[in-house]
């Protein structure tokens, strides 16, 4: 089979047009937004034109199916609230190009998927988590986004397109191509990363509730200021994690919502996201204990009520040896001596799909290691090299 680099790049730029925003090649295409749904409708059309049968499942995951059993390639096409043009989109369009080339060549059989809500507007990799059974649909339906919209309500917008969930037994394995989203390949000058394993993650919302009050008349010693509780919590966990973490461990408070969020009001309520990631499940559990103990101590010391949202998480996952070997052979064929094996610190749909079938992943470099930002980019020659590695691996596996 012969992939067409120009056709692949043209499709990738076309997808960027759905939700194009911000500086450079930025994209705003969160799950179930108008831009996301329009992009999915366009992708379904492109799948059809490529000789695949498009199929939406009940949560908006879009499959492009070939006949019989096949290898599944893909990623996601939703974006972060402020995202780049390649995160997820690259893996979907590369999959489309490889499947299209395979159709033209008369094989091997390859299907394509674009998972929904990988970026976690509602949960953590919600679409693939529901498909793989790691999050039951009833549980996902109870999740809300940061503005309070429910998952059930959001996915209902696509109900007219939805068929059943696809039987995973149709597929022999899943391979996901993605940008690295970190500085390693860009720093070393290597063209390709073959992923060894994907880290685990925990994510939850924490709420401190104090007393909303007047910012001019309320003496400092009488305040129950929810923002001060968040600030104290952050300082305390940074200090306490020191004994537990490794240089590869990461944690983030990425979203804070203060109520009522006004300069002359002592905030009465603060809800914030607490997320942490590591390759070791035991360490993730130890960090959870520290987080809960610290939140409880601070709540007590500062007169706060404390509550937690649902705890979301995925375990670390190792890549399948056979699929990985095919990617390594492809990498050596396309970029001899200029690729490496590496872990993934970002989360991917492959983690969920690993519950259903063998999975593997392939990275291309990210310029400056930047992602989840409008500035995210990759040299087009590197995108094409990655496409060629994916096609090589698919041909070997086919
Ligand atoms: C996925 O985008 C992640 O947060 O790693
Ligand atoms: Mn992604
Ligand atoms: Mn992402």
Characterise the protein shown here.
- 36% of the residues lie in helices and 22% in strands.
- With 398 residues, the protein is of the alpha+beta class.
- Strands 1, 2, 3, 4, 5, 6, 15, 16 and 17 form a nine-stranded mixed β-sheet that branches. Strands 7, 9, 10, 12, 13 and 14 form a six-stranded antiparallel β-sheet that branches.
- A hairpin with a 5-residue loop joins β1 and β2 (62-65).
- α1 (5-16) packs antiparallel against α3 (89-105).
- The longest helix has 22 residues, at 281-302.
- It is globular and about 75 Å long.
- The mean pLDDT is 97.
- One manganese (II) ion (MN) binds next to loops.
Rg for CA atoms: 22 Å
Helical content stands at 25-40%
Output mean pLDDT: 97
Sum up the overall morphology in one term. Answer: globular
Task: Label the structural class.
Answer: alpha+beta
- Spell the H/E element sequence: HHEEEHEHHHEHEEEHEEEEHEEEHEHEH
Question: Summarize this, please?
Answer:
With 398 residues, the chain is of the alpha+beta class.
What order do the helices and strands come in, and which of them pair?
Elements: H1 5-16, H2 34-49, E1 53-56, E2 62-65, E3 70-76, H3 89-105, E4 110-115, H4 126-132, H5 137-141, H6 151-156, E5 171-179, H7 184-188, E6 192-198, E7 200-209, E8 213-214, H8 226-241, E9 250-252, E10 256-259, E11 265-266, E12 269-278, H9 281-302, E13 305-308, E14 312-314, E15 317-318, H10 321-334, E16 339-344, H11 349-353, E17 359-364, H12 380-397
Parallel strand pairs: 3-4, 3-5, 5-17, 6-16
Antiparallel strand pairs: 1-2, 2-4, 6-15, 6-17, 7-12, 7-13, 7-14, 8-11, 9-12, 10-12
Helix pairs in contact: 1-3, 3-12, 8-9, 10-12
């Amino acid at each position: 089979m012969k992939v067409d680099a120009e056709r692949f790049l043209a499709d990738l730029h076309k997808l960027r047009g759905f939700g194009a925003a911000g500086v450079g090649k930025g994209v705003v295409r969160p799950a179930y937004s108008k831009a996301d749904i329009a992009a999915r409708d366009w992708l379904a059309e492109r799948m059809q034109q490529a000789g695949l049968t498009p199929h939406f499942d009940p949560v908006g995951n879009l499959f492009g199916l070939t006949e019989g059993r096949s290898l599944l390639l893909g990623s996601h096409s939703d974006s972060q609230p402020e995202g780049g043009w390649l995160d997820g989109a690259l893996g979907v369009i590369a999959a489309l190009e490889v499947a299209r080339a395979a159709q033209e060549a008369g094989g091997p059989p390859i299907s394509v998927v674009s998972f929904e809500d990988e970026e976690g507007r509602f949960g953590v990799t919600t679409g693939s988590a529901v498909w793989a059974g790691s999050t039951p649909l009833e549980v996902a339906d109870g999740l809300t986004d940061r503005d309070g919209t429910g998952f059930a309500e959001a996915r209902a917008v696509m109900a007219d397109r939805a068929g059943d969930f696809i039987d995973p037994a149709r597929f022999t394995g899943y391979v996901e191509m993605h940008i690295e989203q970190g500085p390693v390949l860009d720093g070393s000058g290597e063209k390709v990363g073959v992923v060894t394993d994907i880290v685990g993650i925990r994510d939850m919302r924490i709420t401190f509730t104090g007393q909303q009050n007047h910012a001019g008349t309320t003496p400092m010693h009488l305040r129950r200021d929810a923002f001060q509780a968040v600030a104290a919590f952050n300082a305390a966990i940074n200090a306490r994690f020191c004994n537990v973490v490794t240089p590869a461990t990461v944690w983030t408070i990425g979203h804070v919502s203060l109520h009522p969020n006004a300069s002359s009001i002592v905030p009465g309520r603060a809800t914030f996201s607490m997320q942490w990631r590591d390759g070791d499940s035991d360490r993730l559990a130890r960090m959870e204990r520290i987080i809960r103990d610290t939140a409880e101590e601070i709540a007590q010391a500062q007169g706060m009520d404390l509550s937690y949202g649902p705890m979301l998480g995925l375990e670390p996952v190792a890549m399948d040896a056979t699929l990985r070997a095919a990617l390594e052979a492809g990498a050596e064929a396309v970029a001899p001596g200029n690729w490496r094996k590496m872990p993934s610190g970002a989360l991917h749909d492959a983690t969920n799909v690993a519950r259903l079938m063998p999975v593997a992943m392939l990275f291309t470099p990210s310029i400056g290691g930047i992602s989840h930002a409008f500035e995210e980019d990759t040299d087009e020659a590197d995108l094409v090299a990655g496409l060629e590695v994916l096609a090589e691996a698919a041909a070997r596996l086919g």
